[in-house]
Amino acid sequence: MADVPxxxxxxxxxxxxxxxxxWSISQLRNKLEPIxxxxxxxxxxxxxxxxxxxxPVEAADxxxxxxxxxxxxxxxxxxxxxxxxxxxxxxxxxxxGVEKYVMPPEEYEKKSDSVLAWKKAEKLGRFNPEAxxxxxxxxxxxxxxxxxxxxEVGKRCRVGGDDSRxxxxxxxxxxxxxxxxxxxxxxxxxxxxxxxxxxxIGGTRYWGAESALKHGVFVRPERVExxxxxxxxxxxxxxxx
Length: 241
Prior knowledge:
This protein has 241 residues and is of the alpha+beta class. Among the domains are: 4-87, Ubiquitin-like (UB roll), CATH 3.10.20.90; 146-226, CAP Gly-rich-like domain (SH3 type barrels), CATH 2.30.30.190. 18% of the residues lie in helices and 25% in strands. It has 4 helices and 12 strands, in the order ββαβββαααβββββββ. It has helices spanning 25-36, 105-110, 115-122, 131-148, and strands at 4-9, 14-19, 43-48, 55-56, 77-82, 156-159, 162-174, 184-190, 200-201, 204-205, 216-219, 224-226. The strands form 3 sheets. The protein has a 5-stranded mixed β-sheet with strand order 2-1-5-3-4, with helices on one face. The termini are far apart. Keywords: Chaperone, Cytoplasm. Belongs to the TBCB family. Its main location: cytoplasm. This is CAP-Gly domain-containing protein.
């Protein structure tokens, strides 16, 4: 008989394996041990097929009981339970005690097949000789946007052209806690708690006090419209109560 692909599942492993029907149960247990890390005598095996009850894979004489006598169907699940006490079981998913290798920066710098070497060769990012001027141009453009839009702390505004996202400008400047960015951001305290934070980000508070309500949002200047945007009165459109 041809091999049958089954999904072997245990506490530490879930992988597809090809099972030979001519194996005895004892052979199966021995072959599973290096895969799941459970000794043969401590394996409780069940075969689960979609729509059918699980079938225990066990017998009085496992050396002479063969897998061909079980309902092996392609991609059925072979569940293996470790019957040892919890303290005696291996936890192959716990890597906290595994010593990890960290390559020293100076050694990484010398490698010719690294991402860093590729960036150097392609003159990307900080290796681009024009990078400083490009960064300055972006910073200048953001500052000009702030001036053009008359963005100042204390002014009323709306964000992204959305009338439901009205609020007050609380901060204008760099936000170093936002990774990979340069230039100015605008911090807005929205009237409704539909923001992303409470005025703090990355452990730094830019305005207000700690709150579970998310009234705060940081956006780029081009998304801010300064103007006469009073607080929306939820009752103003109601004719009667």
